TrEMBL record:
<dbReference type="Pfam" id="PF00072">
    <property type="entry name" value="Response_reg"/>
</dbReference>
<keyword id="KW-0238">DNA-binding</keyword>
<dbReference type="InterPro" id="IPR036388">
    <property type="entry name" value="WH-like_DNA-bd_sf"/>
</dbReference>
<dbReference type="InterPro" id="IPR001789">
    <property type="entry name" value="Sig_transdc_resp-reg_receiver"/>
</dbReference>
<feature type="domain" description="Response regulatory">
    <location>
        <begin position="6"/>
        <end position="120"/>
    </location>
</feature>
<dbReference type="InterPro" id="IPR011006">
    <property type="entry name" value="CheY-like_superfamily"/>
</dbReference>
<feature type="modified residue" description="4-aspartylphosphate">
    <location>
        <position position="55"/>
    </location>
</feature>
<keyword id="KW-0804">Transcription</keyword>
<dbReference type="InterPro" id="IPR000792">
    <property type="entry name" value="Tscrpt_reg_LuxR_C"/>
</dbReference>
<protein>
    <submittedName>
        <fullName>Two-component system response regulator FixJ</fullName>
    </submittedName>
</protein>
<keyword id="KW-0805">Transcription regulation</keyword>
<feature type="domain" description="HTH luxR-type">
    <location>
        <begin position="136"/>
        <end position="201"/>
    </location>
</feature>
<keyword id="KW-0597">Phosphoprotein</keyword>
<dbReference type="Pfam" id="PF00196">
    <property type="entry name" value="GerE"/>
</dbReference>
<dbReference type="InterPro" id="IPR016032">
    <property type="entry name" value="Sig_transdc_resp-reg_C-effctor"/>
</dbReference>
């Protein structure tokens, strides 16, 4: 699954913003620029994807407060904090608050590109996983009540005859329902069906996993 992810650069220094924009552009990374944490939060929505690169020291809301605000909003975007000389305690605090990484000024071009790519890769993987889980949940919801009952029996390890007896239907009918649910779940084997059902939270008393 493809996701168009961008790096969101938040820094009050226009020279730094322009330098990072040029650097990321040469690396083929889509970039958005903001001159303050407040400007970024105003533009940010729940659907905003990518990663954030923010200076730790800025007028108004600083990088640490931005990081905490994003976490309070439930954002899953990785945040990379840029720190100046002597800001190690702030960098450590940022990591404790969930920052993906911190980069010290003057930063090495290769190091910050590598950090951003790693952050984008992590979110891309997370988005793919969430999308796949949602798709599995949709497939489970498409099952009829009887197909779901047959699936529950299979997850309990029962053979067709036992499931048939429990549901008061013939083993042949169980086979038909089993074939139908395999088709709807797009499973090529029983083991794959079991893995998919468990991933969707079926058979363990849970809702589909995010």
């Amino acid at each position: 699954m493809a996701h168009d992810l961008a790096v969101h650069v938040v820094d009050d220094d226009i020279a730094v913003r322009q330098s990072l924009a040029f650097l990321f552009a040469t690396a083929g990374i889509s970039t958005r620029l903001y001159d303050s944490a407040e400007a970024f939060l105003q533009a940010c929505t729940g659907a905003t994807a990518g990663c954030v690169v923010t200076d730790v020291r800025m007028p108004g809301m600083d990088g640490l407060e931005l990081l905490r605000r994003l976490r309070d909003l439930g954002s899953a975007m990785p945040v990379i904090v840029i720190t100046g000389h002597g800001d190690i305690p702030l960098a450590v605090a940022a990591m404790k608050d969930g920052a993906a990484d911190f980069i010290e000024k003057p930063f090495d071009d290769g190091a910050i590109i590598e950090s951003v790519r790693a952050a984008l890769d992590r979110q891309r993987w997370d988005l793919d996983r969430r999308s796949a889980a949602a798709d599995l949940g949709t497939r489970v919801e498409s099952l009829s009540e009887r197909e779901r009952q047959v699936l529950d029996g299979l997850l309990e390890g029962h053979p067709n005859k036992t499931i048939a007896a429990h549901l008061a239907i013939s083993p042949r009918t169980v086979e038909i329902y089993r074939a139908n649910l395999m088709t709807k779940m797009r499973a090529s084997s029983l083991s794959e069906l079991v893995r998919m059902a468990l991933a969707a939270g079926v058979g363990r008393g849970g809702d589909p996993q995010p």
